[in-house]
Structure formats: C-alpha cells, structure tokens
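Example record used in the benchmark description.
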Amino acid sequence: MTKRAREARENMPLYMISVAAELAGVHPQTLRIYERRQLIAPQRSAGNTRLYSQTDIERLRLIQRLTQEEGINLAGVERILALEGEVNRLREEMDSMRVRLDEMKRLAVRDLERARREYKAEIVMIRRGGLARRD
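Model output (structure tokens):
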C-alpha cells in the first residue's frame, strides 16, 4: 500500500463521538472541549454528526497521554501539537528538497558526461587536423 493510500485510509471518518471517546479513553464531552480548543478537528457527516478517523483517535490518545501521564495542561498540549505539526511540515519539505536535489545531481552528471564526450570528440578532431565547422 502506498503512503498516500495508507494516509487516506487512516484519515477516513469512521467513528461517531461515543465510539471515538471510548477508543481514546475519554468522555464525549472531553472531545467537544478538545474540538473547541482546536486540538482536534473531526469531520462532519451530511447530518452534521462528528466523525473521527483513526488518525484522530491516535491524536486523542496522545493528548490523553500528555495530560494524564505527563501532567501537561491543554495550553502546553496545544504548543506541543503545533510544534509537532511544524516538524512534520519541515520533514516533508526536506524530503521534497532531497528528491529535487537528487534530480539536479542526475541532470548535472548527465550534462557533464555529455560535455566530456563532446570535449573528447573535439580533441580527436584537433588531432586529426583541425576542427570541422559546426552549424
């Protein structure tokens, strides 16, 4: 499965609030609070029912771990999640830049090889009595 297909599957809205709350180990009202604080953004059905994806559940579990086990307040969680998002964005940007750099290297090597072949051909021509005029 490709990365994009896996991400699409993990972001598919599947769980209603009661199921999501149970999976994350929190009360449904806690999910509403997290949504108001913009810690989580569930998708909505046509009937405006909150629907949570597997990615949302994992994020809820992280929030629970940070608040319950680490003793971090919601303002701290907001900052941690924002920084985590920035790190992920920068990783994606770096990956993209690496791909572009590899392509640039490949093109540079190709151009150098072509220039080397042309140079060698010109040297051979010079040794044979001069350069032919190129048009």
